[in-house]
């Protein structure tokens, strides 16, 4: 599903060139449930940005479901994000003036799906995360855990290729964190590829593959199934 | 700009969230358009008031009279007074195609006019049938002098409104007789100036009789004092002026280079300078109005910029979820156009309403001001300002929209 080949990325800061990713090779199969761990500065945010088509890489090759993601215009990138990727953010990032259902339906709006159809599907997905009764509530009327579940429903509604979650439990207490992770598990059991960035060991332990980053390189890849580092070529 | 219900809902939601800010921003544009409309309408009132002084028609006229010559020519000595006659009038009318009307006048002053025992001395004017077509005169009752009156030298008179009131009081003057220097004339109509001004007082009091009747009855000699010349509608009277003067100089043996001999006054020049003046005033008013509007637009642009900054996170999230830049641009532009168009339209309505109110109040109370009359907003100003509004909304939104489109979706992932 996700193929990274020798991904390199550097930022120019004044006269200094800061190399953040120094050659990442990674292969995530369809239906993978992986977590990325690493201290700050390890490059995990940059990697997530690249995986989420929010940022470009300098060298290498990124294939998402076989499609080469390279040199896209802003509009194309937006389309790819909309169709292929479901984002879950640490601070939920729900639009405060929209109801839960409207928030969930938002990605479909950019697919120009009819309004009624959008609402119908949004309620279905809210039902899936156990919030059908809350569809008319504003985010401020929901608890943190509920908000994150709404955000997961929003990520799922376009039936993307992969869910990218950036510290999805970072703002939640551990009980709620586990509830949210249960939902990810369930989603993964239904066949969805899920990639979670986290710095909490217990959260990472709940996934089936742990990728550790250090100084812009993959230090270890804890899954026996996935490709091991430094062995390029998985087409 | 076509947007669906969701986009409008979102825009309205954000505007509602910042009621005071939206209101103050809208006030800027409202005031701008209101000032533009109001000031232009009042300017139009001023213009209408001044142009009304010219009368409703015949702005294309000149006056011609004889003057003492200053140069010897064809054996004639300087210092001679040429006499203009009816055949000069006919010659002008026949030879100069650019001339529409030539209206001569010969006046006798301080002529005793009686009706029964009531009497007064008045100016008697000998005219053809056409003076009322070129001067700012109007008929109150009856008719003016006509061609048959001229041909038959009938003893008929058109009496100035005020004189008619003096002589006849409440009675109907038409059909009655007045004695002009002892000669009976039948009244066929009453007339007066289109507007009462200090210089049109005499039109209220004068008595007009056929020029031919004047010659025959009072022995004035077949001359005229001056004539009024009106150019054809598509010809400027300033082009006709030298033609008329050259013709008269030739007919009266006046040196072609003589600056005197034939005197003339051309209303077009006056008219042009006033037209130019109002052109200038109007340009100035547009400048001021648009300037005020511009200040409003800058306000909108400023607020939109703040709004975009405030919503950076939201825009980032939208982009991460798949919003193309164009949809973000549309959103910002729509919001800006909505504010400017709504408030500006309101300003247009209030401004128009106020002008209309002033205008109808003046009419209802019969207020007649010398230099102010019938303020109005022309359709073109209305349409122009609506176009201006939409355009200014787009301009006000353009820079903020560009900023919004440039928001990096990565901000959605950043947590403060």
From TrEMBL, chain A:
Record protein name field: Macrolide ABC transporter ATP-binding protein
Alphabetical UniProt keywords: ATP-binding, Nucleotide-binding, Transport
Domain ABC transporter per the UniProt entry, residue ranges: 2-234
SMART domains: AAA (SM00382)
Entry GO MF terms: ATP binding; ATP hydrolysis activity; transmembrane transporter activity
Similarity-based family: Belongs to the ABC transporter superfamily. Macrolide exporter (TC 3.A.1.122) family.
PANTHER family (UniProt xref): ABC TRANSPORTER ATP-BINDING PROTEIN, IMPORT ATP-BINDING PROTEIN
Cellular component annotations (GO), alphabetically ordered: membrane protein complex; plasma membrane
Keyword Transport: yes
The keyword Metal-binding is assigned to this record: no
Domain of life: Bacteria
Family matches, as InterPro entries: AAA+_ATPase, ABC_transporter-like_ATP-bd, ABC_transporter-like_CS, ABC_transpr_LolD-like, MacB-like_ATP-bd, P-loop_NTPase
Species lineage: Bacteria, Pseudomonadati, Bacteroidota, Saprospiria, Saprospirales
UniProtKB/TrEMBL annotation, chain B:
MacB-like periplasmic core domain residues: 22-246
Transmembrane parts of this sequence: 20-42, 283-308, 328-357, 377-399
Top-level taxonomic group: Bacteria
GO molecular-function terms, A-Z: transmembrane transporter activity
Pfam family, one: FtsX
GO cellular component, one term: plasma membrane
Lipid bilayer topology: Multi-pass membrane protein
Domain spans labelled ABC3 transporter permease C-terminal: 287-409
Alphabetical keyword list: Cell membrane, Membrane, Transmembrane, Transmembrane helix
Signal peptide: none
Compartments it resides in: Cell membrane
Family statement drawn from the similarity comment of this UniProt entry: Belongs to the ABC-4 integral membrane protein family.
PANTHER family: ABC TRANSPORTER PERMEASE YTRF (PTHR30572:SF4), MEMBRANE COMPONENT OF TRANSPORTER-RELATED (PTHR30572)
Protein name according to UniProt: ABC transporter ATP-binding protein
